[in-house]
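Q: Can someone sanity-check these two? First one:
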Amino acid sequence: MIGVTCASGRLGQLVIGLLREKVPAGEIAALMRSPEKAEELGLEVEVRPFDYNEPDQIEAGLEGIGTLLLISGSEVGLREIQHRNVILAAMAQGVGRIVYTSLLHAGTSPLKLATEHVATELMLAESGIPFTILRNGWYAENYIDTARSALEAGALYGAAGEGRISAASRRDYAEAAVAVLTSEGHNGRTYELSGDRAFSLGDLAGTISEISGTEIPYRDMPESDYAKALAEAGLQAPWPDFLARIDRQISEGALYGDGQALADLIGHPPASIRDILAGELSPAA
């Protein structure tokens, strides 16, 4: 039995859909906080309640699970405790293998997000359970709303300078997870996963311009000015400071990767940022 946590999330749904093409539905368990949503999501596999904050529920949800995909939680600041709950329950239930979705270059990343991922990786190493680390890069889909906002504003604003982003699609990362879940030879390995066509925000502006038919320049700003602009645009705290800080860290290489591990696992080139935006932006009339 393969268990997938955060199964109602966008990555979890993709993983389950791809798993169903490779293994019988009866061998897949969707582990999710709100199991009542399973029918509307069309998961069509066994569904178990699984709240990262409920240790007893977690342990019950892992009964009979041989391989677990531990998709990192979304509550920044709580993930170390939540992931510990899962790992301890997996140890108690005798789970045979854990595959964990971490962060690109987590061990050296300047992103504050990396701290909880590193802590989880260390817990896995100490658990005695065979494990694989998938250090996922940025989701290219993160820039869909960015592109739409740029079209509304007439320019793309940021604070990333010439920093390059090696993003890939959620589906690419889901395919990599399924490849690891359904094959052997991955125990003890850490995969640095990223797209193979890195882009700067200037490049992104050019791609938006090309697809939409509207010239969109990139306007680079100091981090503090960008945070202020995001706040003035209506973004609530702490997001303006958080997003501006990430842009500055992009300028330092935080989201850049030059490896081929993702392409090797999925057997084809990852989607480019143009691939992701092409179906989302309408050409100018």
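And here is the second, same format, sequence then tokens:
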Amino acid sequence: MTATSGIDRDRAESEATTWLVRLSDAQGDAKLREAFEAWRTASLLNAESWERARHAYDLIGKRTPRHQDHWQPYADGRREARSLPPAQLLAPRSPDRARRTRWLGPRRVITGSAVAACIAVLSGVFLPGLLIRLQADVATSTAELRNLPLEDGSRVSLAPESAIEMTFVAGQRRVRLIKGNAFFDVSPDEAHPFRVEAGKALVTVLGTAFEVRRGEDGIFVAVQHGRVRVDDMRAEAKMTTTLHGGEWTRVPTAGPIVQGVLKQDEIAPWRLGRLVALNRPAGEVVDDLRPYYSGAILVQSRAFARRQVSGIYDLTDPRRTIRDLASAHGAQVHELSDWLMIITAGND
């Protein structure tokens, strides 16, 4: 018996994903069903890959999307809203049960691993961030903005899917940004500096307004007015940077600190429902849109992800923004359901 290679398994899972999408788009097409059955029965590997993909798909369909109250108004307003068809409609069936219907257009080919895609959906959308919630004093949900007064008279604004832990005891004014974006307007108190911890960066201020963003690529700090000190805690020899109004710095996960300047309205524009991008990879812009969309966004086109884009994007309707962004840069968006978007190359 010949052992199955990793390449063969990846190919079968990729093809299973493709069939999943095509069958969900044309559920009654007899010719498509015939072609699918030929593929499924061609090998045991194909059959096993299909069952794994369909099982994960079935699990997704049985769950209620997290934070549905935030995205439901957008879904209700869509003209072509679609939901996942029941898994049994995608299950193999005998030819006498197949119904003939018109061909619904060119086939859609979506590459990638069915298992990886479904795991991303299940873990990123439906499973609560229990660890984050246990650590946080305040946490926001998808598409939720929150403005809070702090015990010392300062204020904090939290972007969607952000979390903070706060310590205001014995003269301490300390906030830990666990995840996401926060904008602070700090009440002056020379005797008690206000400190924000974010990963390997420590921001210290007396009285000022500034943004701190924590992402996978590192920590970003931008000052609207006043002055802050940013300490890079990655190395034993601590490095310090001082920022004034309109200046920003990035403490990356690896590599040297980067600095620059911004206009006032480009600091924390998410508070006004805007995303400002200047010569940034489209993949990063999509990452910034994810907290505003209660679902999964899978980018399958590397060319699109690398493309440099600039613009002001609407955060209040992320689905439309993603479609417009993809269309403007030669990519296509496939919506497998109201909470799963897949971006592919334009000819897919």
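A (reply): Looked at the second one. The chain has three domains: 6-126, 142-269, 271-345. The first strand starts at residue 138 and ends at 139.
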